[in-house]
Write a structure and sequence with these properties.
Layout (H helix, E strand, L loop, with lengths): L1 E6 L5 E6 L10 E3 L2 H12 L2 E4 L2 H10 L6 E4 H11 L9 H8 L10 H4 L10 H6 L3 H16 L4 H21 L1 E2 L2 H12 L10 H13 L11 H10 L9 H4 L6 H18 L1 H7 E2 L2 E2 L3 E2 L9 E2 L21 E8 L2 H10 L2 H6 L5 H5 L13 H14 L5 H12 L1 H15 L17 H7 L4 H7 L3 H40 L12 H5 L3 E6 L2 E7 L3 H20 L8 E6 L7
Parallel strand pairs: 1-4, 4-5
Antiparallel strand pairs: 1-2, 2-3, 6-8, 7-8, 9-10, 11-13, 11-14, 12-13
Helix pairs in contact: 2-8, 3-7, 4-7, 8-23, 10-13, 13-14, 15-20, 15-23, 18-19, 19-20, 20-23, 23-25
Length: about 575
């Protein structure tokens, strides 16, 4: 069963029962309390909810204690369908999709700050117009999407996985990652010195700044936060450089270099995850980032604040489980090479990917000690990464030749994607997520009137643009499929964790420890890594659930492939102790 939802005014709204194909299966039900109505139907029917945007509606449900099992996010699915049609980036709102389906002018999507007006369900009648949640529009757009999905192989799973990811993102944003403000403060104090006031630098940074100036001479004052002053100081010392990037500085023989490198590292920590970040993003012992599902074109997530996807390793000591609880930290080992093996169906490559350590399994193809003294395993890793990311310099060229001769189908899979990109065509993930088309500027730059002109163009800017597009599409088919797999993993794991969670009975028996402990929660996700915060006594069950979810994701995407997707799992009290 599917139930369409339209948000109304003053906490009300409308519901309508639909068939799986989007057909109407019941009358419109107007409700005064939408949250209560959703809670009641979730308990009674566990439907797949059809609504405009999980990111806007679901947080309000969660805050009211209502969680749902499944949904169909119209905006996310519209984005996927537009991408598949080569129209990436066009407006995706229900109003836009409704207008598009009728051949009418398509209104632009609202900016996030405009959408934030919907912080409640809803404050006044003006919000009805702002929301665009007309029940007839929701129903009609869903029906159009279902018809489109029915004609695309694998797309139903992609739509379901993307929508499930939106539920996970909202729940993680609400539950938060356990975070010790005291530990964080102690780490900053140890690395930077006591917390400064009045906008001053922390003591350690100021000490380094003074020593940097001294290194350039007693009469020279250099602000290490100013690239222009650093360049000028090095030029005066007879060491002209083009930038202050770390790899450039490391080539210089000057006493200021190690000081500058240390300053840059600590300054980055202070700016990105210092005391201001701690005050802004951590409260009540939880870090609550704002995840953006599908925020990257490949399907990977982004964040709109908090930098959850770039937690420095040094600060992982601050991620501490609650007393009596544990963190189950799991990441997929060598995910993208395994995805390539499953996609390409190369028999020899697939056989190697049926083992735990893929690079070690491939090492017999190469030899230890040749070339730059790399181990056979490291050569296998370099060759695979070069094939997926388009590397082609140094020893990688020779290693790619070995890879091509031993695993021709795998090599050809990414080569074909690269050729498609260079010719301006679209490439897709296993489930149908589609790369953006090249821009008009790219097409103009890379077009040529004849074969000779095309050959000449490859020697200049046009050639660079062609190769860049080829590298992008070469990696897209693998990375986007890995994102599909990770979403399938998330959806499966979320479902399995629910069975380990608090009893759904309002009056659980005394023996039901789940009712008093609370259940395991997904609290962090980054590309191929998840963290579950769980009562310690359920950690073993969570580990089993992670393994089962990884295998389910494998079967959903790749059927009976022998490729395995092993999860490296640690049960720890601190994130820093994982692995």
């Amino acid at each position: 069963m599917r139930i369409a939802v339209a948000v109304g005014v003053r906490g009300g709204g409308a519901l309508r029962v639909l068939g799986e194909d989007g057909s109407i299966a019941g009358p419109v039900q107007r409700v005064l309390d939408l949250v209560a109505a959703v809670a009641e139907r979730e308990r009674a029917d566990a439907p797949r909810w059809v609504w405009a945007s999980t990111a806007r509606l679901y947080p309000r449900l969660i805050e009211a204690g209502v969680r749902v099992g499944r949904c169909h996010d119209l905006e996310l699915v519209e984005s996927l369908l537009l991408g598949h049609a080569g129209r990436y980036g066009e407006p995706r709102s229900v109003r836009a999709a409704w207008a598009r389906s009728r051949g009418e002018p398509v209104p632009p999507d609202r900016r996030p700050q405009e959408e934030s007006a919907q912080a409640s369900l809803f404050d006044d009648d003006r919000e009805q117009e702002a929301s665009g949640d007309d029940i007839e529009h929701v129903v009609a757009v869903h029906a159009v999407q279902q018809r489109a999905i029915a004609g695309l192989d694998g797309f139903a799973l992609l739509a379901a996985a993307e929508s499930a990811g939106a539920l996970v993102a909202a729940e993680m944003g609400h539950d938060g990652l356990p975070w010790s403000a005291d530990e964080h403060d102690a780490l900053l104090t140890d690395l930077l010195g006591p917390r400064p006031s009045g906008g001053l630098r922390p003591r350690k940074l100021q000490d380094l700044a003074d020593r940097i100036s001294t290194a350039f001479g007693q009469r020279v004052h250099v602000n290490p936060d100013s690239p222009a002053q650093i360049l000028k100081a090095f030029a005066a010392a007879g060491l002209p450089i083009a930038s202050t990037r770390a790899h450039v500085l490391k080539r210089l023989d000057h006493p200021a270099v190690p000081l500058l490198l240390e300053y840059k590292e600590l300054s980055r920590l202070h700016t990105a995850h210092g005391w201001t970040w701690l005050d802004t993003w951590v409260s009540g012992g939880r870090f609550r980032p704002e995840y953006v599902v599908g925020g990257v074109v490949s399907g990977r997530w982004a964040t709109s604040g908090g930098g959850a996807l770039q937690i420095p390793r040094v600060l992982r000591k601050a991620v501490v489980a609650d007393p009596g609880w544990s963190l189950v930290v799991a990441d997929a080992a060598q995910l993208e090479p395994r995805v390539l093996a499953a996609l390409a169906g190369d028999r020899a490559f697939t056989d190697a990917a049926a083992h735990g350590d893929l690079y070690a399994a491939l090492s017999d193809v190469f030899h230890d000690g040749d070339g730059e003294g790399m181990s056979a395993r490291d050569k296998a890793k370099l060759a695979l990464l070069s094939a997926m990311y388009g590397g082609g310099t140094g020893e990688a060229v020779q290693l790619l030749g070995v890879l091509k001769s031993r695993f021709p189908a795998a090599f050809e899979y990414v080569e074909a994607a690269a050729r498609a990109g260079e010719s301006g065509r679209l490439v897709r993930s296993r489930l149908g997520r589609t790369c953006p088309p090249p821009s008009a500027g790219w097409r103009e730059l890379t077009s040529a009137g004849d074969d000779d002109a095309s050959a000449d163009a490859r020697m200049g800017a046009a050639g660079q643009a062609l190769r860049s597009r080829g590298r992008f599409t070469r990696n897209f088919v693998v990375q986007a499929t890995a994102a599909d797999w990770a979403l399938a993993l998330l959806g499966s794991l979320r479902r399995r964790l629910t069975t380990l969670g608090p009893s759904s009975s309002p009056h659980p028996p005394p023996s039901d420890r789940r009712a008093t402990l609370g259940g395991p929660r997904l609290v962090f996700f980054q590309h191929d890594e998840v963290i579950v915060h769980t009562p310690a006594e359920l950690a073993g069950d969570v580990v089993a659930a992670v393994h089962a979810s990884a295998d389910e994701a494998r079967r959903l995407l790749f059927g009976d492939t022998p490729v395995v997707f092993p999860m490296e799992i640690s049960v720890v009290d601190r994130y820093a102790d994982a692995k």
